[in-house]
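Quick one: structure tokens for this chain, please?
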Amino acid sequence: MQEYFSPIDTTQFAGANLYSDTSYGNIIKSYIQGNDFPELENVHLAIIGVEEDRKALNNEGCALAPDYVREHLYKLFQGNYQSKIVDLGNIKKGNSIDDTYYAVTDVLAQLLRKNIVPIIVGGSQDLTYCNYLAYLKMEQTINIVAVDSCFDIGDGEHELNSQSYLSKIILHKPNILFNFSNVGYQTYFVDQNSIELMDKLFFDTHRIGQVRKNMEDVEPIVRNADVLSFDVSSIRQSDAPGNGNASPNGFYGEESCQITRYAGMSDKLSSIGFYEINPAFDNNKQTAHLVAQMIWYFIDGYYNRKQDYPIVDKSEYTKYRVSIKDHEHEIVFYKSNKSDRWWMDVPYPINHQLKHERHHMVPCSYSDYETACNDEMPDKWWKTFQKLG
């Protein structure tokens, strides 16, 4: 794996010689110039920089982002836990972009096989496609959540870029994508045909206004993901100016940190990527600093995981049965006694094989339970039932 990476030059980081014993600059085992490549035994999380922006639309320069983010991340203090994190350095830019894609896919697949969670710092968002291909190597169906102001569905007939990676994922054969969810899209950035397509595919889309009314409803969306792809252009320009496609509207910095902490706490989520950070547009490294804090919150969430996904043993859960539509349907809910989080059990359609067994227990919220109690079918239940067929 080492052959893919170039080491980090921390001599360029402000304050690199002032890290305390409990700051990440000393705690993370990093591939720094002059040091050996980190061992991967007993490691939980691995930070990977990707210096690739050849397919970034209107955001060339984002390849330089990883070290800007590290400069701030290394100054942050570890929380109340013993973290086991490595920083593998930056994946070298290939002679062609396909070389970079191959390297990223191979590295991620190797880490996933070792049950190490990759934290990808890009680079452009088309690298999400490489993240998807890594799971293809593992022959595992997955759910992807993208925090983004648009869908990045582009045109499947054109080449892969930062605003068309989703169509490449959808059209890929064989296909291992079970569900895609967008969090925070802004309607004026999205073609109506794309909204209709997402609906036909039974994918989940959540407008920025709906999400910000109750940020807690984001938690079950993210809890259902294997992959989280975060485009910093979904954060408002005043909080994250370092992006060529930044917009006046979007998430606040605190809300972005809240989302990544939810991601860290998800027992299911096994990789996360932060993309489109561009130092050329940044003010006083503000965006890099924010992303460093978002990574801190992800790590904090990871070390506060509850390990309470109700797949096998349901003895630690309270079970609720709700009949709706004059007993035409019964929906079974489970509430964790450990974390108070909710799930819905979506049954397989009759005479269908159990090929998506890991997706029938759907994370939900108390509001979904209330919806069922009001004799209405929760949207999550219906969409999942359609895809299981």
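Residues 53 and 328 are 52 Å apart (CA to CA).
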